[in-house]
Amino acid sequence: MSAVVVKHASLWIVFGFFYLSGLEMALRLAIDGQQDPTLLKTLAFTFLYNLLAAHLVTKYETLWPMLAAIVISLTGIVGFGLYFTDRLVDYSVELAIGLTLSLPFATFIIQQVKRRHMDNAT
Length: 122
Description:
- Helix 2 packs across helix 4 and helix 3 (about 65-85) runs antiparallel to helix 4 (about 95-120).
- It is built from four helices and no strands.
- The chain has helices spanning about 1-30, 40-60, 65-85, 95-120.
- With about 120 residues, the protein is mainly alpha-helical.
- About 30% of the residues are buried.
């Protein structure tokens, strides 16, 4: 059991690094696409990227998708974005908190949509 957890957690941490790379691009597009950038609009635009990432998480992580989303979000944003590198330090703390909570929330929504789709299919 512990080998499975280590294997999954290692993959989630690696995915967190790549998640940050895509999120940085989504952030740039979300901010540059607004005439007067606001926190809520930026979070709403980047939430679309998080829905896509959440779809991939729920598709490929069948054991613990919600835990995977939390680990990916924390390692990507807090770990690689703020601690190990300075890729997100120019943004506000509120944006970092919103982005960190966004992937788990998007994963929850995608799980519910997939569950309803499966219920309707049967």
